[in-house]
Design goal:
This is V-type ATP synthase beta chain. This protein is an alpha/beta fold and 477 residues long. The protein has twelve helices and 21 strands. The strands form five sheets. Strands 9-16-15-17-19-14-20-21 form an eight-stranded mixed beta sheet, sandwiched between helices. Strands 1-7-4-5-6-3-2 form a seven-stranded antiparallel beta sheet, with no helix packed on it. Strand 5 and strand 6 form a beta hairpin.
Length: 477
């Protein structure tokens, strides 16, 4: 039932207070009609008896205490949904901003979503290929997983987000049912235009749904943005049968908006001023990823967080790490040395990787190769620490080989062009090519069968290429 009220009790920033309100619901949508006929929309964010607090989406400037008419619409905020949302661009509240008109909805769904029954969840299987070797081989993204990227302020995580959205694919005929929902929160106008232009020029916009919340937009809209994006993803996945990758950047901007919103309500702050319910609020977003029994689609999340002062113990990345299934950490020193994408291998992991790779998914050698690359690169860091103490000249021949391996690993495996899209087979082959630099007795994470099949062939190919390079040099001289 739609109820109407005349006048307001109080205006405080973007919040208005009404007294004598009965049968109101939390998150209920409210329309405020001003004296000049303008209508502004808000939602109920707090209820205390018959007093309710309403957050106004577009601010409270020009609102009168006496003559404002308020209507409670009796429903939560909803998003208009249909298959035609693919290729469209929306603002943070789900309104079209691409000049193509309104969406003609097949249905409307609450942006708060519905909780997934744990019993009906299916275990995530199979992988999503990002075209980036370090991610595909060493911390594989699995369908239905939530795998965050931890970045530092000013690093090139925006470029990485666009590259993943542009290159991501799934295997086989199902790729025609693959879509990306891209949500940007608190970005500047030039960054928003960069996102839009990048997808448009690459021709991938037709499979992307974009939600853009600008830094000068109201903070309440920033809080709505990931919920609108996930509602669109759930519709495409569970009702249209698509596999959807949701990229959310930057979740730290979302958390800061939540902190400002909590402060305006007078709530008691927790760590670093964030509300005490930050964990449950983030969980309400991240847990909307997954696969549901009886549904052919899936929702996979790749949230991106910028860590203030590169502090991984900051509340936002810290709590995110508890909720999600691993993390991809970007390293500032690698970025400064020209490595792109600057993925820090050792602190990064994908906890569901083991169940979505190997024979039948990627290739039989994938798991063993990833383990050996991790072990070899960990040895590289130890050797580098040792060489900084005693000098590289005093290292053993094996340690010097590891140093050479580390340099090639960073220059050839981690580093790849912004437009370079490597298949999983290319990335696996490159991994074996680098391992062929090391003596066979150093490869203790791989069984003899795989060594015979992949290591020996990679070593033979490397030796052949070396001989050809020497012969060409002699001919040219």
């Amino acid at each position: 039932m739609i109820l109407g009220y005349l006048g307001l009790k109080e205006i405080n920033g973007s919040l208005v207070v009404l007294d004598g309100v009965r049968d109101a619901s939390n998150e209920e949508v409210v329309d405020l009609r001003l004296e000049n006929g303008e209508v502004r929309r808000g939602r109920i964010v707090q209820i205390a008896g018959e007093r309710v607090v309403v957050q106004i989406f577009s601010g409270t400037n020009g609102i009168s205490l006496q003559n404002t008419r308020t209507r409670l619409l009796g429903k939560p905020m909803e998003l208009a949904l249909s298959p035609e949302i693919l290729g469209r661009v929306f603002d943070g509240a789900g309104n079209p901003i691409d000049g193509l008109g309104d969406v003609f909805p097949e249905k409307r769904k609450s942006i708060n979503g519905s909780p997934i029954n744990p019993v009906s969840r299916e275990y995530p299987r199979n992988f999503i290929q990002t075209g980036i070797s370090s991610i595909d081989v060493l911390m594989t993204l699995i369908r239905g997983q939530k795998l965050p990227i931890f970045s530092g302020s000013g690093m090139n995580h925006n470029e990485l987000a666009v590259q993943i959205a542009r290159q991501a694919k799934i295997s086989g005929d199902e790729n025609s049912k693959f879509a990306v929902v891209f949500a940007a929160m608190g970005v500047k106008n030039d960054v928003a235009e960069y996102f839009r232009r990048s997808f448009d020029e690459s021709g991938s916009l037709q499979r992307v749904v974009m939600f853009l919340n600008l830094s000068n937009d109201p903070i309440i809209e920033r809080i709505l943005t990931p919920r609108c994006a996930l509602t669109a993803a759930e519709y495409l996945a569970y009702e249209c049968g698509m596999h959807v990758l949701v990229i959310l950047t930057d979740m730290t901007s979302y958390a800061e908006a939540l902190r400002e919103f909590s402060s305006s309500k007078g709530e008691i702050p927790g760590r670093k001023g964030y509300p005490g319910y930050l964990y449950s609020d983030l969980a309400s977003l991240y847990e909307r990823a997954g696969m549901i029994a009886g549904k052919s689609g899936s929702v996979t999340q790749l949230p991106i967080l910028s860590m203030p002062n590169d502090d991984i113990t900051h509340p936002v990345p810290d709590l995110t790490g508890y909720i999600t299934e691993g993390q991809i950490v970007l390293d500032r020193s690698l970025s400064a040395s020209g490595v792109y994408p600057p993925v820090s291998i050792l602190p990064s992991l994908s906890r569901l990787m083991k169940d979505g790779i190997g024979e039948g998914y990627t290739r039989e050698d994938h798991a063993a190769l990833a383990d050996q690359l991790f072990a070899a690169y960990a040895r590289v860091t130890d050797v580098r620490a040792l060489s900084s103490v005693i000098g590289e000249e005093e290292l053993s021949p094996t340690d010097k080989t590891y140093l050479a391996f580390g340099r090639r690993f960073e220059q050839e495996f981690l580093t790849q062009g912004y437009h370079e899209n490597r298949s999983i087979v290319q990335s696996l082959y490159l991994g074996w090519e680098l391992l062929s630099m090391l003596p066979r007795n150093e490869l203790d994470r791989v069984n003899d069968k795989l060594l015979e099949k992949y290591y020996e062939s990679a070593r033979t190919a490397a030796q052949k290429n070396t001989r050809e390079a020497v012969e060409n040099a002699l001919e040219n001289s």
